[in-house]
């Protein structure tokens, strides 16, 4: 995920001294689908947050480098305010340091022989002094080169900058002279700032190695302030450019060990090495920097080894916590990647994760020694969570109780309770009435927690996965005891209601008055309403051409309340799913299938789902009586065509139970009726049989060609889930039998319309 750097991108970003660069970028949506353990809560250290584990990105939540750099701005402004005394206001200092409009005034001041005569466009200094002249002289160097040093970066690709220009030797020599003059007159503040500017200019020159000599010759005279550590970051970048990763990493370890505020940037510049190489570098460093070195190595390579190395050096190291958080998140991501099919297999698989994939006994022992970092809550919580994966439920319960006692915030207590519920549920071998009674309170609490915004950290808690997993686990227990109804309540499946006996049982259950508290809780959480169920039955019946049942079920759908806006006011109205309007006239048949075109046509009286079914029944009754069979059969065939996946009223089958809402393709369990052309073909053939003229015969021939094409697509592409069809070079059409039939009627008006609109038919005919 991290390509090797050819330059020290973060030194560019953060070592700027006087003018700061920050990467833009929006926060990404955080997907905690398979995680319970929240490092925001358990680790609770914002300085390390970018380094938390994220399965999809190098940095947590794909956080872009740069936000930490803004921390320098307030320090620099305050330092210059103290140095300049009353010469410039705080607003003026900020303006000259950062505003693009200030460049002309800076240039004007530096060029003037008599500084007292300079006319400023705004923020005129209160007094002119040598210190003010120093300030503008430094700005002339710093801001005069920012088109080179403040390089623009793609926030997803720090290695490739858009700026290739290098600083000039004349500017470097000028900056060095200003530095030496400041040293000679004893102006330590200005000398310190110019020292950083010299490093900065050398770093962006054609001779980046010059940074190393200058730093080594002068750094001992610098105070150990933020300026010094920014300069050290340039040194690390220069070593990196030489591929001297040992010295680069050693310098970065010094930075990482400090309360430097840029741990994300420092970690990014770190170059992972072999463990024995890291050992060699560490031997030359003081203990705090050894810990920092292993922390950065652990970020990239092996958290477990790095944690153990740091524990041996300093069990109180602050770096341990973020590494432990990463390690736990990595373990649970691996353990929770398995599909839950049987309880036995699940337990074996997750135990394998914490004994084979990740050997965690050492961590459990370390956590129980109580001599690790000051964050005992984190380590005790992690140990309890791991014991759950070891299937040691009582030991886990004991540790989690201890963690609950150590928790100091509401969010920390909730985190313990989430893991405790996970432990309690996965300890079950079967589900009994006593278990239901005991767990009810916990699930009621969990539901409230998911809906609750009262805790400031609630957005960081990973409650959703606790709910989804424990429901899935309980559903397997119910399945194993033969309770298909409770299994469905906890793990809804959209094929459940195609079984009439199961559908009837669920309907009766949802209407039952004397539910237990446990049953009532899950009935209230159930994904589908009675309206959804009745509507699904109607849809299933329709595709079987059982219109009486379809209409009957559609009419059973009850009203439900829906919030809406009328005349700008929020109001509640009563609606029924059966009254949903269809986006196009279902009975029209066109040469070209263009849903958007049909949806844009104005309908005099739009059909609802119910009125559509009633009209279908009316037409089929006329067919049965022999009344105008051709036209009625054609219209019914068009309707079955349009209500398929290929047609213009897909909205007819949109239903929560069926689970289709217009995306590309349909689910496997719905292919048999949503892709099926049998009913459309049946009525087109009936219409063909009763056609009385060539215009009618021509039209039916073409409609049957479309049916044949769809059947070809089903067999060749869609049944194999190749929903792009012929888009990438596959066969798109053939000389369908319908096309061959249509050629018998070249004298008809309809034939000419097809030639005009259908390029496939035209290419086969001409």
Provide a descriptive summary of the structure in words.
The protein is an all-alpha fold and 766 residues long. 58% of the residues lie in helices and 3% in strands. The strands form 2 sheets. A two-stranded antiparallel ribbon has the order 1-2. Strand 1 and strand 2 (157-161) form a beta hairpin. Helix 15 (287-300) runs parallel beside helix 17 (319-335) and helix 16 runs antiparallel to helix 17. The radius of gyration is 36 Å and the shape is extended.
Structure at a glance:
This protein is mainly alpha-helical. It is 58% helix and 3% strand.
What is the tally of beta strands? 4
Helix content: 55-70%
Estimate the global geometry from the Cα principal axes: extended
Termini separation comes to: 55 Å
Which stretches of 5+ consecutive residues score pLDDT under 50? 1-32
Quote the average pLDDT. Answer: 90
Radius of gyration: 36 Å
Strand content: under 5%
Structural class: mainly alpha
Going across the major beta sheet, what is the strand order?
1-2
Tell me the major beta sheet: 2 strands, antiparallel
């Amino acid at each position: 995920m991290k390509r090797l750097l050819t330059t020290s991108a973060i030194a560019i970003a953060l070592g700027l001294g006087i003018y700061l660069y920050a990467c833009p970028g929006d926060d990404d949506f955080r997907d905690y689908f398979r995680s319970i353990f929240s490092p925001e809560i358990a680790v609770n250290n914002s300085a390390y947050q970018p380094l938390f584990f994220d399965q999809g990105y190098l940095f947590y939540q794909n956080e872009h480098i740069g936000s930490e750099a803004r921390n320098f701005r307030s320090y620099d402004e305050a330092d210059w305010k103290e140095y300049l005394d009353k010469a410039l206001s705080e607003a003026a200092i900020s303006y000259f340091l950062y505003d693009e409009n200030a460049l002309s005034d800076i240039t004007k001041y530096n060029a003037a022989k008599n500084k007292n005569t300079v006319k400023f466009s705004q923020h005129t200094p209160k007094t002119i002094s040598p210190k003010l002249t120093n300030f503008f002289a430094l700005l002339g160097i710093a801001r005069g080169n920012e088109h080179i040093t403040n390089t623009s970066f793609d926030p997803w690709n720090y290695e490739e900058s858009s700026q290739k220009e290098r600083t000039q030797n004349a500017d470097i020599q000028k900056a060095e002279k200003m530095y030496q003059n400041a040293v000679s007159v004893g102006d330590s503040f200005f000398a310190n700032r110019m020292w950083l500017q010299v490093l900065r200019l050398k770093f962006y020159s054609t001779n980046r190695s010059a940074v190393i000599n200058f730093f080594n010759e002068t750094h001992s005279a610098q105070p150990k302030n933020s300026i010094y550590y920014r300069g050290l970051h340039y040194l690390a970048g220069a070593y990196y450019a030489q591929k001297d990763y040992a010295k680069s990493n050693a310098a970065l370890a010094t930075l990482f060990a400090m309360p430097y505020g840029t741990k994300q940037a420092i970690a990014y510049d770190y170059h992972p090495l072999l463990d024995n190489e890291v050992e060699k570098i560490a031997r030359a460093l003081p203990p705090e920097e050894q810990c920092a070195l292993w922390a950065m190595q652990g970020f990239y390579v092996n958290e477990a080894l790095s944690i153990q190395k740091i524990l041996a050096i300093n069990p109180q190291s602050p770096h341990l916590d973020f590494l432990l958080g990463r390690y736990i998140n990595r373990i649970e991501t691996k353990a929770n990647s398995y599909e839950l099919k049987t309880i036995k297999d699940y337990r074996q698989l997750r135990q394998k994760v914490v004994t084979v994939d990740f050997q965690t006994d050492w961590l459990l022992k370390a956590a129980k020694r109580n001599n690790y970092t000051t964050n005992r809550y984190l380590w005790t919580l992690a140990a309890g969570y791991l014991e759950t994966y070891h299937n040691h439920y009582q030991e886990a319960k004991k540790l989690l109780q201890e963690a609950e006692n150590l928790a100091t915030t509401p969010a920390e207590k909730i985190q313990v309770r989430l893991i405790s519920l996970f432990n309690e549920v996965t300890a079950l071998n079967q589900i009994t009435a006593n278990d239901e009674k005991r767990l009810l309170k916990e699930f009621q609490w969990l539901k409230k927690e998911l809906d609750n915004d009262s805790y400031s950290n609630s957005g960081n808690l990973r409650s959703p996965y606790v709910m989804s997993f424990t429901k899935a686990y309980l559903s397997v227990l119910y399945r194993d005891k033969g309770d298909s109804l409770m299994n469905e309540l906890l793990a809804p499946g959209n094929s459940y209601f195609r079984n009439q006996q199961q559908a009837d049982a669920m309907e009766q259950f949802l209407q039952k008055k004397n539910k237990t508290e446990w049953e009532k809780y899950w009935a209230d959480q159930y994904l589908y309403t009675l309206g959804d169920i009745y509507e699904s039955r109607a849809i299933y019946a329709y595709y079987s051409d059982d219109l009486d049942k379809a209409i009957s079920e559609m009419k059973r759908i009850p009203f439900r309340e829906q919030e809406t806006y009328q005349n700008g006011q929020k109001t509640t109205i009563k609606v029924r799913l059966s009254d949903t309007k269809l986006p196009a006239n279902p009975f029209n048949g066109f040469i070209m299938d263009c849903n958007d075109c049909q949806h844009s046509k104005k309908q005099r009286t739009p059909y609802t789902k119910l009125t559509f079914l009633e009209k279908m029944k009316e037409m089929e009754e006329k067919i049965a009586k022999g009344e105008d069979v051709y036209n009625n059969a054609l219209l019914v065939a068009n309707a079955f065509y349009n209500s398929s996946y290929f047609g213009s009223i897909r909205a007819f089958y949109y239903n929560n139970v069926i689970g289709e809402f217009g995306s590309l393709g349909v689910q496997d369990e719905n292919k048999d009726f949503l892709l099926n052309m049998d009913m459309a073909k049946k009525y087109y053939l009936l219409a063909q049989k009763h056609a009385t003229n060539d215009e009618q015969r021509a039209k039916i021939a073409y409609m049957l060609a479309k049916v044949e094409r769809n059947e070809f697509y089903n067999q060749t592409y869609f049944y194999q889930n190749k929903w792009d069809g012929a888009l990438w070079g596959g066969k798109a059409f053939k000389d369908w039998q319908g096309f061959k039939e249509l050629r018998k009627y070249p004298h008809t008006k309809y034939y000419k319309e097809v030639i005009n609109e259908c390029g496939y038919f035209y290419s086969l005919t001409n």
